[in-house]
Every structure is written in structure tokens, then in C-alpha cells.
Write a structure and sequence with these properties.
Oligomer: single chain
Strand order of the largest sheet: 1-16-17-15-12-9-10-11
Radius of gyration: 19 Å
Strand content: 25-35%
Helix content: 25-40%
Order of helices and strands: EEEEEEEEHEHEHEHEEEHEHEE
Shape: globular
Largest sheet: 8 strands, mixed
Number of helices: 6
Structural class: alpha/beta
């Protein structure tokens, strides 16, 4: 398991009973988490100190019960700054377990000691984009949501990265890759965090179990002749880490060699010392001598 254990501004304080209580900077939130099926730590006081709690509805979705919470606030990871706010369906605009991948992105780009171009697909609010840009790469950030892309730009500005070579693209990821292939544009690294289900700006539908295999094969078509890495994340409980490992094996590794690793992502739990599972990732990396 790859554990995001270098946070200072974020922590899972406790989890259990299908929920987790987290510290985001100075704000304490309670949110649902289907993985936390064990009992809560009875001695953890954080549950009673939450500034806001997200309650699921039996009819689907849910809503926030806010006691005292700013409309927006910031937290930091290393030199990166993220703007947070409570969103519909329990989110805050950041997946803190992805910090384990940001560290991989940072050290891999810096170790390359050459110009690196990165394509970040389904890029959301830009955590991986910022990590790559801060490490010195040029980045193409692609997401179908105009609002999320604007949020990512705000995160870049807050992180003093607004002047870095980042292209901000609002588009359906598949259509964008198809155009990049026709244009002959190539990238040294690809990052993707596809949703379990989604819709593009023109009504395109995406179901990860049905579409991700063809999508990975398509995306491999924009890799350069000397690629550095490919990183795929998944939050679908129906796809084991090994599935993404196999997809990278029959697409990228078959052509370029290199190595593949796939693990669950996790967050340490302060109260119990457990690690809360939070999706999974697979990483292909070129041979160390490439």
C-alpha cells in the first residue's frame, strides 16, 4: 500500500461505523466512508468537535450539516496550496491520499534531469498538475468540467505556479487525445484519474469498467519515444489494483519495457494506527537507465 503519510495540514483523526472524521487545516469534517466498517474509537473526541458533517440521504446524495465552516479555506502540502470548500456529494475539492502519487510524480520528474512534458487527464482540481509543474515539467491539464478547471487554475495561482508552462484544456478526454494523435503531439508522462462514471461537456458517457481498457490503449498513442512514466488511479471498488497493472502491461510495457507497480492508496488514522484504504493506483516507469 502507498500511504500518504507526509501531510501536516491534513489527518484522518478516526474512522468507523461507515464514517471518518478528518482535520483539514483548522477545520474538522465528518464524511461517509464505506471502507470504515469497524467500530469508532470510543475515546476519540474529534467526532463531537466537527465543524461540519455530511449526511447521506436514503433517496440518494445527501447534504452538509454545517455548524461553523468558512465558505472556502486553504491547506498546504509541501510547497503546494489548495483551496477547499464543501461540495455536493461529500467532497472538498481534494483527495489527500493522492499525495502519495504527487511525491512519486515529483521525484520521478526531478530525477529525469531533462525537460519533461506531462499530460494530466481527468485532472479535477489539479493536484497532480501542480506537483508536476512544481517539479519543473510542462503540463497539459485536461478536464471536462469548466468549473473544476477554473478551480485548478486558482490552486496554481495560490501555489505561485500561475506562470509555469501549464495548458488548461476543458474538453472530453477521449476526444482530446484523438485530436492530439492526429496533430502528432507527444508527451513524456501521462497521469489519469478516471471517474467511475461521468459525462463529458457534450453528453458523452463514461463507465470505467466498460471504457478504461480502450482508453488506456488510446492514451498510450500520445507517449513520446522516450517516455518517463504513466500513472493511473481508480476509485472503483470493482477494479483491483492488478487490473490496472495488467492494462499498463499490455499497452505501455509491451512497447517500452520498464517496470509496473500497483497498490492500494491509504491514509494513516491517528486514533488507532490503522491505515484507511482509499482507492488504488498503478505506475509504469521507464527503466532506470533510459
Amino acid at each position: 500500500m502507498w500511504i500518504a503519510d507526509q501531510w501536516k495540514d491534513y489527518a484522518v483523526l478516526d474512522c468507523g461505523g461507515g464514517e471518518k472524521v478528518e482535520r483539514w487545516g483548522t477545520q474538522v469534517l465528518v464524511r461517509p466512508d464505506p471502507q470504515a466498517i469497524w467500530p469508532r474509537d470510543a475515546g476519540c473526541r474529534a467526532w463531537a468537535q466537527a465543524h461540519a458533517t455530511y449526511h447521506r440521504s436514503s433517496a440518494g446524495g445527501g447534504s452538509w450539516d454545517i455548524k461553523k465552516l468558512p465558505a472556502q479555506w486553504q491547506i498546504h502540502y509541501r510547497e503546494l496550496t489548495f483551496n477547499l470548500k464543501p461540495m455536493s456529494f461529500k467532497h472538498t475539492g481534494l483527495f489527500p491520499e493522492q499525495a502519495a502519487n504527487w511525491d512519486f510524480i515529483d521525484r520521478t520528474i526531478r530525477a529525469a534531469k531533462r525537460p519533461v512534458s506531462v499530460l494530466n487527464l481527468f485532472a479535477y482540481t489539479g493536484g497532480a498538475t501542480l506537483a508536476a509543474a512544481a517539479a519543473g515539467a510542462s503540463v497539459c491539464h485536461v478536464d471536462a468540467s469548466k468549473g473544476m478547471t477554473q478551480w485548478a487554475r486558482e490552486n496554481a495561482a495560490s501555489s505561485a505556479l500561475a506562470d509555469k508552462p501549464i495548458r488548461w484544456i476543458v474538453d472530453d478526454c477521449k476526444k482530446f487525445i484523438e485530436r492530439e494523435i492526429r496533430r502528432g503531439r507527444r508527451y513524456d508522462a501521462i497521469i489519469m484519474d478516471p471517474p467511475s462514471y461521468g459525462r463529458g461537456p457534450s453528453g458523452e458517457t463514461w463507465k470505467i469498467e466498460e471504457d478504461v481498457a480502450d482508453f488506456v490503449a488510446l492514451a498510450a498513442g500520445v507517449l513520446s519515444d522516450d517516455p518517463l512514466f504513466v500513472l493511473i488511479s481508480s476509485y472503483s471498488t470493482g477494479l483491483a489494483p492488478s487490473v490496472m497493472r495488467y492494462l499498463l502491461g499490455i499497452t505501455v510495457a509491451k512497447k517500452y519495457g520498464g517496470t509496473i507497480d500497483a497498490q492500494e492508496l491509504g491514509l494513516p488514522v491517528e486514533s488507532t494506527g490503522l491505515v484507511l484504504p482509499c482507492g488504488s493506483s498503478a505506475r509504469w516507469a521507464a527503466h532506470s537507465g533510459r
